Amino acid sequence: MNSSSLQDVSLYELAHSSETAPRPLQVSPTIFKSMVSTLMDLLLDQRIPATLWLKLPRGEAWQSEIERFQKSVSVPSSLYILSSHREEAKKQTAIADFDQFDPLAPSDPLAELEPEATDESQESSFAAPTDELEDEWLDVRDPVPPLTGHAGSLTLPLAAESNLRREYFLLVLSADFCGLVLAHRPRSMRAPRDSDNQDTLFSSPKSIPTGDEEVDRKHPLLGLFTLNGETIQQVLEGIHRAVCFGQSQAEPTAEIEELLVNWDGFVEQVTDCPLNPSLLSHLFTKQVQRQEEIWYSTALWRRQADAAAALQLENEELLHSIRLKDEFLKHVGQELRTPLTTMKTALTLLASPSLKTPQRQRYMEMLTHECDRQSSLITSVLDLVQIEDAVDTPMQPLRLIEAVPGIVSTYQPLAQEKGIMLAYTVPEDLPPVSCLPNWLRQIVINLLHNSIKFTPEGGQVWVKARQQGDYIQVEVRDTGIGIPPAEIPRIFERFYRVRQGGADDQNGAGLGLSIVHQLLLRCGGSISVRSKPGEGSAFIVLLPLYSSSHKG
User: Fold this and answer.
1) 55, 80, 213, 300: which sits with the fewest CB atoms below 10 Å from its CB?
2) Listing from the earlier edge strand, what are the strands of the sheet with 77-83?
């Protein structure tokens, strides 16, 4: 049949025009590639001599499948590669079976081939403008692999306006079985074009952890797989028509002309092709293995992606921790420098020979005050460092009735000196809390010290404890000056001091409440505050009840 003057037709449409056409399925490029690999593996494992007709997307991942087959095949086989690059017909490699293989043939035709751009001006008259560039990157333009092993190859150029440019397939003809894997990219399912990523996505379906999903979403295909002789024969006729149509626009070659003359032999091979149940079993097994490999690879990439995300999060947390430490050191330096500056000034004035006794006494008091302030700062900083180093420290069962009364009695003289009523209410039957003795003591001392410090003469300070579910609530309440609402969110920050006049609030290091907060976090507790300026404040501490799980 002379088809050289006829426009070729879609192989996918030909396959579905068959009465026994298989049901079309939407498949991803990854699945299509696995089916192609499965057919090739079956031929290699069962050592089946075969003729392969194929058109695959360009790219290293697809090209490597052809090269792998050629290097691994151990029986005479032939490959006919349909290509949209018309110039490749001039540099094609002749078919060579094992007996005809010429060891003197060029060993690396890759060096002889230079890919040329598609004549887009000629294609534009046949294809919609929106498809020109997208079809271009999907066309097969890889150089013909070198002749190796027992497999030879011949490139069959297609016409620029061929209807096969949106289709990819592998057709296998052998004396044992015939099979077809065919994929068609319909226009209606085309995703928006990404000019930077298209080549990579389609040519390397498993190149990045989430690449498979991205390719599947952007480039869905309509595919079919069949072993039916009638369907394969119609597709083979479509290939014949496409080759003839390509020859009508290219310089004829003796190899392709001889191929077209002997075409009836391929058609007869399809007619006489048996359906071997044993090979079907092997084919099914191979495909299951391929799917398992894809699943395992995807799962591996997902685990690696999750691990990378976790490492990135840990890195961000470490960077944040480093920034906090830098800020902490900056604040420590500033806080240490302030009393040192005051002390240096006082010492300079004390050296004056004309200094009077009252002035000398005042400067001595200033030195004492600043020394106490610096000592308090150093102690607080060391406490914070010790708290941060206390990782996985086992907690102990502590009873508040054994700790709170002693602390309150210690502060009674200070409260009486300021004219403040100090009291506590701690039921004796309260269950033990989970904490460390020095931690619990430091929590109560810091809160009690602040309440007395910011409560004027005639005020009241009291400590109350009661059980609240799985926690013991300790409330330290005062009738002091209170805290402005805008200041409350920041009172647990390091070195932060409430800016209020009328109280000696600038003498501390600004670390007391921060230390309390850190201690409670370490033992599984929490702290909150209610306050109103001029009426007082209430700090509510929740300490977890002790259980065997708190032993460490």
Assistant:
1) 300
2) 25-27, 221-226, 178-184, 167-174, 50-55, 77-83, 151-157
Token pair belonging to 495? 């070195």
State the pLDDT at residue 127: 37
Tell me the pLDDT tens digit for each residue of 301-331.
Answer: 888 989 999 999 999 988 887 887 777 777 6
pLDDT digits (tens, 9 = 90+) for 86-131: 444 444 443 333 333 333 333 333 333 333 333 333 333 333 333 4
- Spatial CA neighbour of 184 closest among 48, 70, 328, 57: 57
Q: How far is CA 465 from CA 272, 410, 429, 472, 523, in A?
A: 95, 18, 11, 7, 18
Cα–Cα distances in angstroms (integers) from residue 188 to residues 29, 92, 185, 219, in the given order: 17, 35, 9, 11
Strand partners of residue 27: 221
H-state helical runs in 46-83: 60-72
CA distance 393 to 390: 6
Task: Give the type of residue at 53.
Answer: W
The 526-532 sheet, strands edge to edge:
421-425, 460-468, 471-478, 536-544, 526-532
* Helix segments in 149-276, DSSP class H: 198-203, 211-218, 229-247, 254-261, 263-271
Task: Evaluate if residue 55 carries a pLDDT over 80.
Answer: yes
Is 474:467 a contact under the CB 8 Å cutoff? no
DSSP-assigned letter for residue 549 = G
| Residue in the structure block whose two tokens are 């004396």 | 175
CA distance 136 to 130: 11
Distance between CA atoms of residues 141 and 118, nearest Å = 10
Task: Report phi then psi at 25, rounded to 5.
Answer: -130, 145
* Two tokens, residue 3: 């088809």
Q: Are 223 and 184 in contact (CB under 8 A)?
A: yes
Amino acid residing at 148: T
| Rounded distance between C-alpha atoms, residue 388 and residue 522, angstroms | 9
User: Per-residue pLDDT for 34 more than 90?
Assistant: no
Summarize pLDDT for 179-195 with one digit per residue, the tens.
999 999 887 654 444 44
Q: How far apart are CA 549 and CA 526, in angstroms?
A: 19
pLDDT for residue 515: 86
What does pTM read for this prediction?
Answer: 0.46
Per 3-state DSSP, the chain is made up of helix, strand and coil in percentages (nearest 5) of 50, 15, 35
In terms of Cβ atoms closer than 10 Å to its own Cβ (0-12, 13-18, 19+), residue 89 is: buried
Helix (H, G, I), strand (E, B) or coil at 478: strand
